[in-house]
Structures are given as C-alpha cells and as structure tokens.
C-alpha cells in the first residue's frame, strides 16, 4: 500500500509538472476583457518611501482573487516603457483582467504583481523630452530603488515569500531592458526574468550573461519575446543568439506584431503561466508563434523561418499550382490554404548550410525568397540552420581578411578561368610573403562554393585572431576541367587535365599576383568529394610541390578499378617519397552517413597495407557543408607549422 501511494504521489507531481507548461501559444482575442462570472483580484495605487530618489513614489499593486493576508505569495515586478509610468500597464493592457481570467481557468499561481514607475527621479512623470539624459539615466538608477526601497517595502507591507525563487521581474520595451539588466545582474534576487520587446538599454549578451554556467544553475526561466515587425527586434535576437550558442535554456518567443500592446499583453499572458511552477527546460523551444527568418533569405523575406528547435516553416504563394513540395534532403508535401499560400513545417534539420529546392508541379526551382547558391550542378536555394557550436564560422569583431575574385587566361585550357582568393587580415599593409592553401570544391559546384557555402574567410579570420592558424592565402579554384563539371564523366583524363591546370595555370597565376612563399613547405592542397579525388591524384603525385594534403569526404571508388588501380600502383612505388615529403596527409569523413565513407574506409585499408602515413578524423554530419566547414577549421590549424 505504501509503495502504491508513493507511485501515485509521483504520478500526481509529474502530471502537475507537465500541466504547468501545457498552454496555448497565444492569448485568445479579447482575453483582457473583464468577466462578471469569476472572482476578481484587487488593484491599488500605493505610496512607498524611496531613499534612492529622496521622495515618496507611486506603484500599482495587484493582489489575486481571494487574497488572504495569512498566506504568503510570490511576487512579479512588472515594468513599463520609456514613455509610460506606473499606470502604463493598467491603462494599456488591463493586466488585472488577464490575470483574473487566468486564475479562473487554473492556469497561473496566485501571485502579487507590482507595477512601479521605472523612472527613478523626483519628477517621474512622462512629460517633455522623455529621451533627455537625466530621464534615461533615471531608468538605470531604478535598479537601486527597486532593490533597496521597493522590494523591502513590498515584503514588509504584504504577505510575500522572500526568496529568489518566488521573485520575478519582467517588462516591456525600456522596462524589458531593465528586467534583463536587473534580473540577470542580480541572480541572487530573481529566478524568473522576462523581456518583452526589450529596448536599446538592454546590455550586450556578454554583459548580461558573463557566466553562462552560473546563469543556468541559478535561473528558473528566462523569457525573451518580440513582434516580428518591431524595429527593436535585433536586441532580442542578439540576446537569443548568444544564449543559444552558450546553451542557456530560455524561451525565444516571436509573434506577428510591432512595438505595441498586442505583443506585450500576450507577453504577460504567456510569461505569467510559467511562473512559480516546475519548469521542463526540454520543452522551452516549443513556445513561439513564429520562427526567425533564415539569414539566407533575401532581404525582407519572412519565410522560410527557423523555429527554436531548428524545424523550418516554409510558406510559398502559388495559387494556380496543383502540387508544391520542399526538397530538403527529404521531400515535404506542402498544404494549400484558402489564400493561395502553401505551408509546411519540416522535421528538425541538422545544423549548418543545406541546399534545398522548391518543387512546383514537378519542376525543381530555386525559392525566390532565398539566396541562391551554385550546387547540385545548378543554381539552388540554400538555408543556414543555427548551430550552438558554430562560433568558429560566426561573424565576429576581429580583424577581417578579404575575398578577391580574380580572372586569368589559362594557356593550359585555352580559356578564361576564375578563382576566389582569400587574403588574411593586414595583407595590403604588409610586405610579408604568405603560404598558400589551394582549396577545391566538390562535384556540381565551382570556385564559389568555399567562399559562400563554406565561409572560408570567417573561419580563417577567427582562427588567425585566436592565433590557432597561421595567416595564409587561400586560392579557391574551379576544379571543373574538360568534362563540364560534376562526376558523370569523371576519370583519369579529367584528373590529369586538372593537375596540369593546377601546376601550369593556377599556381603560377597566384604566385605572380600575390606575395607568396614558393616552396613545398609553404603550399597545401585540399578538397572535398570530387576535389578530394583531385587532391589525392595531383597531391600525391607532386609531393615536391605540396607538403600538406587534406582529403575531405572522399576516397578512390572501390567499384572503378580502371580509375583507382593506377593511383594505388603509383603510391605503392613511391611510398617512401610520399611519407618523406608530406608533413600532413589529413583525411576526414562525415561519419557513416557520408556517402563517401565506405570508399574511404577501403582506401585507408590499402594505405595501411602500403605503409602510407596519414591522420584520420570523423565529424558526424554526412556529405554536406557543415562537415566540410569543420574540416577546413581543423585542417588549417595544422598547416605551415
């Protein structure tokens, strides 16, 4: 019987824990209206003595329905915007009605809500130029008033629970910035923090959360919400991005709307339902109405949107179409609504860059809402999925190099050719000579791939800034020689043609037009997929030109002995030369899901049998750009040392 009671108690707790976060994702229309059939809370204007300001100040206090002075209640401090006062929430949102209605439906815990004047100065009216220096500074000074005067007054005057876990702070606009600044800056005072449409007074994420681990331990809930048409959205977005990268649990809630009470009322409605209850951090990513437009969208395109859990929402207008799909590695059938828009939300998509296509009535097209990228042997759409550990290719405040587009006439191929060349920070102001990495794309791509999809410049900028890689020039070549690109007619003839172009066209052009070191110890060659085969062929046959080789997601084809056998025969005869000349032969794969994995494993066994020395690495992600970005990040740290 005792065991049964224990089990029932656990089930009861779990059920209530789930219920504490089982809610609608948006406030119903008219929810702020007063109902006559429910118990009401009480709302009063109260005076307190502020030693910080040197005067008596007003605050609005809401006490819940059936308020009992013999009980103790948690407290939410709810702050207004730069143009408001302690009455702004009361006038603009009818918060007492929202809270009463939530109580009546059993959706929130009984709590006291305090709505103070966040402008901590003697004349705290919202008059004149509200952006004057002393008035703006008064909002920052409110932190002292809040902590030293208002909270002690509330806890002395009302029956409150006085520990941090029973104290919350939230606000709109300027008050949202205050809430994030004061709440996250005083984790010994607040466990629940919410910013609605937080304004430019919001501190930088690094200032707000200097110690992510400490914040994760001390905070119960961090809520950040904003309207998608709000001009201040960037302040919420930058905070979310930092929290996401540093794995600090939080709600990032976007909805349709601007900088207005429609959004802020909904913020109160949603945030209050989380307060003073058990929190399941694994569900926080589910709470949003809208996703964030992908950074790969064209300017002002709202879709595709990425949800906090990395599902993607697509919305395409094609009223005359009979069938519309999104091909993102997996094909998703879209559903047409009454206004002619086709909609779909995908499964969770893995981090980094992915090609995708819009398929309308069987024709694969580039999505007009997306930037286009040359891949799959055509122009395709691409989407960048956020990655918690993607800081190595993030745009950071470091010195930046340049990517230069250079055209040259090749006497080898008797044609004009193009390469993209990365020069490191400070190149133009220096007389120094630099080592060179020649970097090759895969089949169906060209010289643009590493510069755009690969983010080569950002990866190297960050590594050089951290002194993890030597400053170097990277020549991103067009590996399509003779066969018109791709691997359909790829063979020994194309490999030799590329080798000749590399040796007699590309390298001489780079060394004649850039300040480069010109010996083998200062040259490296690397490539992905098809470019990996070109690296194996041209690199291993020319170890007098290259001391460093990188082979990403590649390997000689086991089912094409006509192509692979001559390569192995050459290696077998030249093992000692290869091992003596190469400082690094670095081979990597995208895990077992990489389509090149099986061929590579067979090749490595042959290398082992021949005694060829190499280093091997795997990074899960398949045959895709997220893997190759990481390959470049790792390989470039080994070079020229």
From TrEMBL:
Gene Ontology molecular-function annotations: hydrolase activity
Keyword Disulfide bond: no
Coiled coil segments of this chain: none
Pfam families, alphabetized: Esterase (PF00756)
Keyword Lyase: no
PANTHER family according to UniProt: DIACYLGLYCEROL ACYLTRANSFERASE_MYCOLYLTRANSFERASE AG85A, ENTEROCHELIN ESTERASE-RELATED
The protein's name: Alpha/beta hydrolase-fold protein
Originating organism: Lacihabitans lacunae
